[in-house]
Design goal:
Elements: H1 5-12, H2 16-23, H3 31-44, H4 50-57, E1 62-68, H5 77-92, E2 96-102, H6 105-117, E3 123-127, H7 134-142, E4 146-149, E5 160-163, H8 165-178, E6 184-188, H9 194-209, E7 219-221, H10 227-238, E8 246-249, H11 252-264, E9 274-279, E10 292-295, H12 298-313, E11 322-325, E12 328-330
Parallel strand pairs: 1-2, 1-3, 3-4, 4-5, 5-11, 6-7, 6-8, 8-9, 9-10
Antiparallel strand pairs: 10-12
Helix pairs in contact: 1-2, 1-3, 2-3, 5-12, 8-9, 10-11
Length: about 350
């Protein structure tokens, strides 16, 4: 049976009211009594009722996170790292994490409404910002605490953490150019995602800075960030009358499929065809050949998002409203010098 306030009161010979006030730091309880009650409660294994605490404080000590699986599968290493970092940071601050995952936009919207209007969470972490994002509009209308992974179309007035995707892609494409590749394809993220445009901008900048023309036939946007989507996109590129001899692929998981498509054509990745991915998932270093990739600090991102949201929930000012982190290009065998 769980230990109750009555058990602690009986153990110490105090009233239930005194024990309850001591556990909740009421000022009319002497400091030594508060310490005695808390020490005894810890020894007895007392756990306060979350429901009772919520009724009293109007707080759940819970953060909400909704994943929409149209873009990535929940087993994507990107999601796993993000989830781990947010969960661990929640634990450090005494918060729980409520996770919902849905495969349609309608179900996603309903999940936000249940969390907010059902008072299930104190704040929400929003991922993958989109153009005309209804989630942001809804949360702002409700005045509900939230932070976002990703920027808005403009420099929004909500707190976010993002990665400089344009710089990451620009560095990756520049690396391919430096290795002797000149006809470079681009396999992008779903166009509804704001970060998709940032990454394409980096691709354009690298080409322009090196006097290379942008061929629209070499640009393909995928609707899903899956291995199969990358495979099919690369097949389309290789079927062109003038196919590319390298490609920047905006997700490592998609790059796995793209590498398969290249190898099926009898081409050697890292010699005949250069590939650079984005995310630097753990598997990237284990591939054959190992994948050159733009590393985004996803664990740090999750930690920052969680800390920012907890500050908002607790009514504390944020040190920075907008944080944009720099990615790092990790060079491996998949982008070795082009063998003419």
């Amino acid at each position: 049976m769980p230990v109750t306030i009555k058990d602690i009161a009986r153990k110490l010979g105090l009233s239930v009211s005194t024990v309850s006030k001591a556990l909740n730091d009421y000022p009319d309880i002497a400091p030594e009594t508060r310490e005695l009650v808390k020490r005894t409660a810890r020894r007895m294994g007392y756990q306060p009722s979350a429901a009772a605490r919520s009724l009293r404080t109007h707080k759940t000590n819970t953060i909400g996170l909704v994943f929409c699986l149209l873009d990535r599968h929940l087993t994507d290493p990107y999601y796993l790292d993000l989830l781990a970092s947010i969960g661990e940071e929640c634990s450090r601050h005494g918060f729980d994490l409520l996770l919902s995952a849905y495969s349609s936009r309608d179900m996603e919207r309903a999940a936000y409404e249940r969390m907010v209007e059902g008072q299930k969470v104190d704040g929400i972490i929003l991922t993958g910002t989109r153009y005309k994002d209804e989630r942001i509009a809804y949360l702002k209308e409700k005045g509900f605490p939230f932070v976002a992974l990703g920027r808005s179309e403009k420099d929004g007035d909500f707190p976010y953490v993002d990665v400089d995707g344009a710089k990451g892609v620009r560095d990756g494409v520049q690396h391919l150019i430096d290795q002797g590749y000149r006809r470079i394809g681009f396999i992008g993220l779903p166009e509804e995602l704001i970060c998709s445009a940032h990454r394409f901008q980096g691709y354009k900048m690298a080409l322009e800075e090196n006097g290379l023309s942008l061929d629209p036939h070499l640009v393909i946007y995928c609707q899903h960030l899956t291995q199969d989507a990358g495979y099919r996109a690369m097949q389309r590129l290789l079927e062109l009358d003038e196919p590319p001899n390298a490609a920047f692929i905006c997700s490592d998981v998609m790059a796995l499929g793209a590498m398969m498509a290249v190898q099926e054509r009898g081409l050697t990745v890292g010699q005949d065809f250069g590939i650079v991915g984005f995310d630097d998932i753990p598997m990237a270093a284990q591939l054959q050949p190992p994948l050159t990739s733009v590393r985004q600090p996803i664990y740090e991102i999750g930690t920052l998002l969680c800390r920012m949201l907890i500050k908002l929930i607790q009514g504390e000012p944020l040190d920075e409203l907008h944080i944009v982190l720099e990615p790092t290009l990790v060079i491996r065998e998949s982008s070795k010098a082009h063998q003419r």
